[in-house]
Amino acid sequence: MKLQDLDVIITAPPAPGWGGRYWILVKVTTNTGITGWGECYASSVGPDAMRAVIHDVFDRHMAGENPENIELMFRRAYSAGFTQRPDLTVIGAFSGLEIACWDILGKDRGRPVHALIGGRMNDRIRAYTYLYPQSGHALPAFWSDPDMAAESAVQAVAQGYTAVKFDPAGPYTIRGGHMPAMHDISLSVAFCKMIRDAVGDQADLLFGTHGQFTTAGAIRLGSAIAPYSPLWYEEPIPPDTPTELSKIAAQVPIPIAVGERLSTKIEFADALRNGASILQPALGRSGGIWETKKIAAIAETYNAQVAPHLYAGPIEWAANVQLAASIPNILMAETIETPFHNALIKNSIRIENGFIPVPTAPGLGIDVDEDLARAHPYADDGLHLQMQEDPIGFHGVNTFAGGAPVKT
Questions:
Q1: For labelling, which of 54, 138, 172, 266 has a CA lying 20 to 30 Å from the CA of 90?
Q2: Report field, pTM of the whole predicted structure over 0.90
Q3: Fold (topology level) of 3-115
Q4: pLDDT over 90 for what percent of the chain?
Q5: ∠ CA 238-156-354 to the nearest 5 degrees?
Q6: What number does CATH give the domain 118-360?
Q7: Whole-angstrom Cα distance, residue 305 to residue 317?
Q8: Is 283 helix (H, G, I), strand (E, B) or coil?
Q9: If DSSP codes are grouped into helix, strand and coil, which group holds residue 250?
Q10: Among 179, 280, 283, which residue's Cα sits nearest to residue 239?
Q11: How far apart, in whole angstroms, are the C-alpha atoms of residue 384 and residue 101?
């Protein structure tokens, strides 16, 4: 069996657009007629350029190869062009293609992917959700309103979720770390208080920041929200300063979580050495399923846990779930419930009372609606996620617009 054909589909989820402006889906077919699906997570180039990169990585390192030879193909891509270091664009391309290889292998053998990477450790995976606006919640006011956030948290708990994520501390900017404004610290405290009062001990609070603060600023903000006992303090500083995590971990009594912008075991090991205790790999960027299995194993040696990140489509989610089923140190997995996410995989993965039952069907365990994916092409010019160029203000709250909502 050899990898033969590749098709790249850029799918734009309809409004409200949770999961990013577009999803990069890859369909890989073998010479024996088996098709595998994968998803490449957000990249630093646009989808047209990324399409070319994906084809180059496939043609150069994978076409004609047996899909079993994951390690060989990874080393080719990782080392390409005299690099031998994490490259977000190249490894992002490889990650989605690698996921497709596992889907092929599982289908060829009639087994779910987790059965091929160590077997089933977990029958179900604890899920968490971001706090999204409910019916009657106005935008953009929702993102800076602790009362509406608390209402959304109560609704999530009613659905069975036992952990909710929110990030009221302002937008991410291109300017590196900044000192949070007092308005943003006060709003963050208000969010934590209102949500904690609303859900009590029924749900963990997951506090996100999108890596926007200086080390000192992250310590100030973390100290302010610590009384509400968040389960994690997500990406408190930019990902290019991993050694600074140790200073935050030493002074803020909240577990440090990082990983959505990291790639390969090299960067995750660095985070662990510097105080991270929860890793959040996005499998469409981190190197794929096999590389992330290694990341999880390294985390075990630090007594750390894994919580796969998801701000993408349901194919990456499926890969996250297969990995989570096979590792002993899974904490939880991010989920996004929209009708489009569900329809794209024909409801082949579901959430039951806050947990994801692990699929038992071959491969990734999903049935992709290819016609639906092609029926929603991306026609905009924005990146999957975009950062603010203007600096934050200090005369009022710095509103975060909630990821990358679809233009209306």
A1: 172
A2: yes
A3: Enolase-like; domain 1 (3.30.390)
A4: 90
A5: 90
A6: 3.20.20.120
A7: 18
A8: coil
A9: helix
A10: 280
A11: 24
